[in-house]
Amino acid sequence: EAQVTQNPRYLITVTGKKLTVTCSQNMNHEYMSWYRQDPGLGLRQIYYSMNVEVTDKGDVPEGYKVSRKEKRNFPLILESPSPNQTSLYFCASKATGHSGNTIYFGEGSWLTVV
Amino acid sequence: GIQVEQSPPDLILQEGANSTLRCNFSDSVNNLQWFHQNPWGQLINLFYIPSGTKQNGRLSATTVATERYSLLYISSSQTTDSGVYFCAVEEYGNKLVFGAGTILRVKS
Prior knowledge:
Structural class of chain A: mainly beta
Order of helices and strands of chain A: EEEEEEEEEEE
Number of helices of chain B: 0
Number of strands of chain A: 11
Oligomer: heterodimer
Largest sheet of chain B: 6 strands, mixed
Helix content of chain B: under 10%
Largest interface: A-B, 26 and 21 residues
Structural class of chain B: mainly beta
Helix content of chain A: under 10%
Largest sheet of chain A: 7 strands, mixed
């Protein structure tokens, strides 16, 4: 089954404690991306990656890091989380080129920073 | 960048009613998708529809790319249709730009 898997799904953490949200896809997609969703603001892109070892900033990259060492994985790293990073996070992947443009989302990760 | 506007922002329906949700975008696009976010937060693909009309059960969508809008039709609404409906268009670099969404509440 084609899927994007995120972990953890729910997390409460404290300010300053580094955390990583993992994302893995099994569709051999080149493109992967992270979004955050906040009330009244919709989904905003944090970082994206067009392929292995290629990453770029989205609209709201401050306070986040990513890496793309393998095609299937695209972890989101919060080096020193702050309360304003409390949000619902989505990982997504998509094939590029003519092989299909539907974007697939993970189930979301609810993060609370206290 | 591309601006995406959705209307209405909120909609309350009686079960069995029909509705039309609208998405306007400010520039030509190669990709437009509709999503449903259920009460548990999951985003579900409804349609990939850069142009033309598609139907899937009680849902259908039409995109008129030359006039820069898309419509999502929900017929015979059910309580399980409740949630937030997002329209998203693809900008450069495969980036999806989302509208703010339409919150739909279907009452039994």
